Amino acid sequence: MIRSTILILITAFLFIQKANAQYPTTKIKDKHQAYTDSLKQVTYDNIFPVWGQKAYQKGFDIPYPTGVMVNYVYVKQGLIIDNMRLGLQTDNLDLPLTSVNFIEFGDNYTTANTVMIRPDIWILPFLNVYGLFGKGNSKTEVNLKFPIELKSIVEQEVRTTGIGLTAAGGLGPVWLALDANITWNKPELLDDPVEVKTFGIRFGHNFVNKSKPYRNFGFWVGAMSISLGSNTVGELKLNEALPPETWERADQIVAAYDNWYDNTATIPQKVIADQTLGPLVQAIGEADGEAVIRYGLDKSTKQKWNGIIGAQYQHNKNWMFRTEAGVIGDRKMFLLSLNYRFLL
């Protein structure tokens, strides 16, 4: 997947001749001509980006090659859950994961707040490679609707590592950027990290300061897709998985389960329920918060794509401030970013 994405991005941007992060066109206003002429006289002896000297000779004001970005990211998105498996461990039971194919879910969602460190380097004037290292917390709400109504809310810390690349270049008066990354997110209560693949496309325009051409303000619109690693396996105590309201209505949950089991459930459903839902409901009825629920499931985002808008203020070639928000689709997101760039 990553290899294919890299090939697609490099191929696309080999055909973009005006590759430049600050001036997406060679059409320069008269008041900036002196600044552009001075760029053509720059002797660029840094290793990265490769072809940096050629970019300056053409009058392009390329960004400093290396940088460190600090991002705060908020995301809330709907989840689709299927292939549910349940197991339970108590003082008297040790039930392995068993498929429960008749469970039906309502609206499920996950919310995450993350602080991310993003070191990067421009390998080529149009190709940036970066790493992602973050820590935050997540809240996942799962609503079971059939055969009983049951809500689970799990909050936990999450650590993130990842890699990505961005290709950017000018298309007349606007610029185009394609971004792809893959991250491994390790919640403290899951057995294995969750793999997340993100792809974004952005179209934007920069407005250059009249008297300080190294200063600019840019805005963009675009779209983003997120794909989750589907299989999730973990275990946690019931008092960590169920909110207080569930324990308060424990008698109602037990009664609803007994009514379904006695009057509606088929023989195959009863066989499965005896090894999964039955012991779980019994633990809830006995207020056994120390019972350990085992779970396995496949999950995906409710909507893969969402629309985005964003803006960036570049104070000088060292400091940039950025924000971005999700505006269309099920996924709600917000980003704040501070970027410091420098020469090695």
How would you explain this protein's 3D organization?
This protein is α+β, with helices and mostly antiparallel strands. It has one domain (2-342). The chain has helices at residues 2-14, 33-39, 52-57, 238-241, 244-248, 250-263, 267-275, 277-285; strands spanning 66-89, 94-99, 104-105, 108-124, 127-146, 150-171, 174-187, 194-208, 216-228, 231-237, 292-301, 305-314, 319-328, 332-342. The chain has a ten-stranded antiparallel barrel with strand order 1-4-5-6-7-8-9-12-13-14. A hairpin with a 3-residue loop joins strand 5 and strand 6.
Task: Set out the fold topology.
Elements: H1 2-14, H2 33-39, H3 52-57, E1 66-89, E2 94-99, E3 104-105, E4 108-124, E5 127-146, E6 150-171, E7 174-187, E8 194-208, E9 216-228, E10 231-237, H4 238-241, H5 244-248, H6 250-263, H7 267-275, H8 277-285, E11 292-301, E12 305-314, E13 319-328, E14 332-342
Antiparallel strand pairs: 1-2, 1-4, 1-11, 1-14, 3-5, 4-5, 5-6, 6-7, 7-8, 8-9, 9-12, 10-11, 12-13, 13-14
Helix pairs in contact: 6-8
